[in-house]
Every structure is written in C-alpha cells, then in structure tokens.
Design a protein that fits this description.
By secondary structure, the protein is of the alpha/beta class. The chain has 21 helices and 16 strands. The termini are far apart. It binds flavin-adenine dinucleotide (FAD) and iron/sulfur cluster (SF4). InterPro entries: DPD_II (IPR028261), FAD/NAD-bd_sf (IPR036188), FAD/NAD-binding_dom (IPR023753), GltD-like (IPR006006), Helical_ferredxn (IPR009051). Keywords: 4Fe-4S, Iron, Iron-sulfur, Metal-binding, Oxidoreductase.
Length: 482
C-alpha cells in the first residue's frame, strides 16, 4: 500500500495516515527513489492517453517530448525512449528525481485533471535514463570538429553545465570556473542526497570532462580573476553563478549561537555525506542530532532542512511559516513527505525573537491572521495581538530565501547592468547582458528558481553564444583581435 501510494497509484484523497515509527516510514521513501521495475514503468507509460494537446509537455520548461517517450517505453523500446528524452534535456535523470512535477508536467497531466492520478512522468524519465546509464548508452558528446575558439563559463551549477555540454558538442573549447571544490552547484551542495544521490551528479560531471570540458575548481571570479580578464581570454563568457545571499531576520536574540543559515547547514550535511570532515558538524553547531530543531520558512529549502534534520536524528523538528499551507511557496508533495516523516508544521506563525544566553533555547513567535489580499492577490499577514508563544529550540535554521550577490562590484565590472532585484539584466532572445560577449543564465537571471529552468536557460544561452561567435567569426578583424 505504502509503495503504491508513493508511486501515484492511489489518489491523494484516499491517503490514510501512516502510524508507523518515522524510521520505518523513511525506508518507504528510499523505495520511491529506487529503480522502477520494467513492469511498473510499462504500466505507468501505458496510462498515458496520448491526448491531442500534451499539457505535460507544454508545462515542462525544457519541452520534453513526454508522450513520445512514454509510448516508446510502453512498447519496450527503451533505447529510443532514451534518445528522445535526452534530446531536450542535459540531465533528465536528475529532473526525473527532483523536479516539482506536481507543479509542472504531472500537475498538468489530463489524467490528473480527471482525478485519476497523473502518470508518474518523473519516475518514468528517471527509469529510462538510469537504464541508459546501466546499459552504456550514455556517451560523452565529443564534437565532430574543433572550432578553435574558447568560451568561459562562470559557475558549474545546472545552468553552467548544460551550456558547457551544448557548447562543447558544437566544437568550442569550454572552460568552467567554480569557487567550490566540486562541480555541480546546488545539485551537489544544496539539494540533499536523499532527493538526489551525489553519484548521479558526479557521473554527469565526469561525462562532460570526458567530452573535453575543462574544469577550474576553487576558482572564484572576483578573487582569482576579474570578468574583464576572462573576457580577454574567451570569445564569450557565460555568467551562471546562482543566487547565494541569504535573507536574514533581525530580531532580539538573532545573534545567539546555533541560529544558522539554511545553506550552511545543508552544504555541511552534503559535504559530510560525500566523506568530508567538517568541523562545524563534528562540534554539533551544524548537526541536528539530539536537538529540538526549528526551521523558519516555507519554501523547498525549508523542506530540505526539516527532512535532513529528521535524518540526522533530531529529537523534534518544527517548521514555522507565517502563511497557511495552501499559500506556502514549497511543493505540496515535499510538505506531505515531511509530515509523513514526523515534521510538525506551525502554520500562520512568525518569529519575533529568540531566547537563550549564549546559545538559542527557544523561538518567540506570534500567531498570524491572513487579512485582505494585496495588489499581488496574496493575503496580507497580520499579527494577532496577545498571541505570543515560545517554541523550544536548540538549533534554529533560517530558510528565508536567497538574493543575488552584488556581481558588478564582485566582478570588477561596474558597467554590468542589473535589475532592481540585483539579478543580471539580459536580452531574453539572446541571453546576452549589456556587455558585449557576456551572457547570463539560471538563477542569477531569474532569481531563485528550479534546476529544470536553469537547464533550459543554459541551453538557450549556448545557442545565443554560438550565434554571437559565428557572427564574430564572419568579421575577421574582430576575431583576430580576441
Ligand atoms: C536547498 C535547495 C534545494 C533545492 N531543491 C530543488 C529541487 O528539489 N528541485 C529543483 O528543481 N530546484 C531546487 N532548488 C533550486 C535549484 O537548485 C536552483 O534553481 C539551480 O541549482 C540553479 O542553477 P544555477 O546553475 O543557476 O546555479 P547554482 O546551482 O547555484 O550554481 C552556481 C554555481 O556558481 C558558482 N559561483 C558563484 N559565484 C561564483 C564566482 N564568483 N566564481 C566562481 N564560481 C561562482 C557556485 O559555487 C555554484 O557552483 C533548490 C535550491 C536550494 C537552495
Ligand atoms: S524535466 Fe521536469 S517538468 Fe519536464 S518532464 Fe521531466 S520531470 Fe517533468
């Protein structure tokens, strides 16, 4: 029953509360991420009605040809299904694992709309592509001819890597610079391993290296080179640096020990799972084991924090969010997973301060009433007078969202134009910024978004760069000057 429920065979309304201890329930979650059997993949693929307007495809950011690869899977033609699947997506088995399908392809499946539960598109995508890796069908995309022109990519997240793979396949010499020691961006240091195994990211990173992409780890642009220096070295530069400035809370007691930023907590957990020794984990400051944990925020990062804390052996895990369940930004599926694992949600509650002497002991909070909708259509949170309460906490994790860093300053390129939110301004047709030959893609353009959108942007930016470099090559003087 539990497996069937997780695989989407049972409609949500039929879900029964799972009374088993959290440790046992977690084993079921491991099973969802385990391989589909051939029969299950076939059964799900067969459920596709091959409808005239494929709403799933329309709502997939990379426009995956979902009906075609479902049909091929249902006919047992898996290698062809793989060919179709990888034609539009550089990291299909990653998207199959971590796309919020309930908001994208599966949420728009007509079978879902008819209340019979969507075809589990993401799981089939994962199945097809994991099979392709097992069978040795996935090969490095080496170019048929070298163009003798190099492109620099700043940032090895999904946007930078998707662009790098596309450009390398076209024949460019591609150099990827990243300030981290490992390539993958948030795929490796943000998203927890229970959602996306690190080996799955590593094999993709290696595949690109095998195709000839050159990595420069521990290379921070702004410290180890400026943007003008990289522009002199490469015909074009792609900025795909993501957004990393964490939103903070200023309230009495916010400087106490054990109040930490979500990404510090998750990065540490990911490093430890990769075998690194991290002092802050060893000394307990970034480790939830044996603690009462409170996570502030209601997005997907908050969900990753609560679920990581459960796995680290926290005594209790609570999530404080100022709006209600239906208004939270995170995926409803993630919330359901967290609840089933034992996380307690305190809806319509906002932190006002923290108690403790040197280290936090509690979060002081107030209840929130959701008032009339503002201009954006969202109800305005209003504090309910006299509703103060305190939640016990030995570790508070702030998951309040991310903003872009000040790139023009950091990159020593004051002319680089940004929007009023600090994201890079690009021409959306070409992905070029206001600086000649400098392109941008992923979260640094959209603000905090999704892996699949970063892939889409990276692919589009590669096309923009290719068109730009070709135009330059047709102007011999300009090319010679590079
Ligand atoms: C905790 C968490 C969980 C998430 N879970 C999901 C999920 O389940 N599903 C989903 O679709 N999306 C998820 N997201 C969002 C998703 O990870 C991002 O939208 C996506 O990774 C953005 O890709 P990117 O390539 O633009 O940037 P990133 O993945 O952030 O990569 C940017 C890279 O640039 C490097 N960099 C930055 N500045 C410099 C510099 N000056 N010099 C050199 N290198 C630099 C960074 O080190 C990093 O490696 C999650 C995000 C977070 C934070
Ligand atoms: S890439 Fe994401 S949205 Fe597109 S089909 Fe796959 S899981 Fe669905």
């Amino acid at each position: 029953m539990a497996n069937q429920r997780m695989l989407g065979f049972v409609h949500t309304a039929q879900r029964m509360p799972d009374k088993r201890p959290a440790t046992e329930r977690r084993q079921d979650f491991a099973e969802i991420y385990a391989r589909f059997s051939d029969e299950r993949a076939n059964e799900q693929a067969n459920r596709c009605s091959q409808c005239g307007v494929p709403f799933c495809q329309v709502h997939c950011p990379v426009s995956n040809n979902i009906p075609d690869w479902l049909k091929l899977t249902s006919e047992g033609r898996l290698e062809e299904a793989y060919e179709v699947s990888q034609a539009t997506n550089n990291f299909p088995e990653i998207c199959g694992r971590i796309c919020p399908q309930d908001r994208l392809c599966e949420g728009n499946c007509v079978i879902e709309q008819s209340t019979h539960g969507a075809v589990t598109i993401g799981s089939v995508e994962k199945y097809i592509n994991d099979t392709a890796w097992d069978q040795g069908w996935v090969k490095p995309r080496t170019p048929s001819r070298e163009l003798g022109v190099s492109v620099g990519v700043i940032g090895a997240g999904p946007a930078g890597l998707a662009a790098a793979e596309e450009l390398r396949a076209k024949g460019y010499e591609v150099h990827v610079y990243d300030r981290y020691d490992r390539m993958g961006g948030l795929l490796v240091y943000g998203i927890p391993g229970f959602k996306l195994e690190k080996s799955v990211v590593e094999r993709r990173v290696k595949l690109l290296a095998d195709a000839g992409v050159v990595y420069h780890p521990n290379f921070e642009v702004g410290r180890d080179a400026s943007l003008p220096e990289l522009r002199r070295k490469h015909v074009a530069v792609l900025v795909a640096t993501g957004v990393y400035k964490a939103r903070d809370i200023k309230a009495p007691g916010s400087g106490l020990g054990n109040i930490v930023a979500a990404l510090d907590y998750l990065t540490t957990s990911n490093k430890v799972s990769l075998g690194d020794t991290v002092e802050a984990y060893e000394n307990g400051s970034l480790n939830a084991a044996g603690k009462h944990v409170v996570v502030l925020g209601g997005g997907d990062t908050a969900m990753d924090c609560v679920r990581t804390a459960i796995r680290q052996g926290a005594v209790s895990v609570k999530c404080l969010y100022r709006r209600d369940r239906k208004n939270m930004p995170g995926s409803q599926r993630e919330v359901a997973h967290a609840e089933e694992e034992g996380v307690e949600f305190i809806w319509q509650a906002a932190p006002e301060g923290f108690t403790g002497d040197s280290v936090v002991t509690g979060v002081r909070a107030v209840r929130i009433h959701l008032g009339v909708a503002d201009a954006t259509g969202r109800q305005t949170p209003q504090v309910i007078e006299g509703s103060e309460f305190t939640v016990q906490a030995d570790l508070v994790i702030k998951a309040l969202g991310f903003e872009p860093e000040d790139l023009p300053n950091a990159f020593d390129e004051p002319e680089l134009k940004v929007t009023r939110w600090g994201t890079l301004l690009v021409d959306h047709r070409t992905k070029m910024t206001n600086m000649d030959g400098v392109f941008a893609a992923g979260d640094i353009v959209r603000g905090a978004s999704l892996v699949v959108w970063a892939i889409r942007d990276g692919r589009d930016a590669a096309e923009g760069i290719h068109a730009y470099a070709r135009a330059k090559a047709e102007t011999p003087v300009a090319v010679a000057a590079e």
